[in-house]
Amino acid sequence: MANPIQFLSQVRAEVGKVSWPSKREVVLTSAMVLVLTALTALFFSLVDWVIRLGLGQIIG
Fold it and tell me: What is the 3-class SS of 28-54, one letter each residue?
């Protein structure tokens, strides 16, 4: 088993190699996720409404 101090040192070195996104990239991608989530929710709500109307016509 590796030495815990050595392990933490290696982890710190690897984290330093990560290319972190800029604040602008984080804000833009977060906004895109929120917009696409809202559009998806709207789409499935409309599909549900259409199916409910169709079944209402068939059953009622």
Answer: HHHHHHHHHHHHHHHHHHHHHHHHHHH
pLDDT in tens, 7-22: 999 999 999 999 999 9
**What ranges do the domains of the chain cover?**
23-60
Global pTM value: 0.66
pLDDT confidence band for 30 (50 / 70 / 90): very high
The secondary structure element, H or E, covering residue 56 is helix 23-59
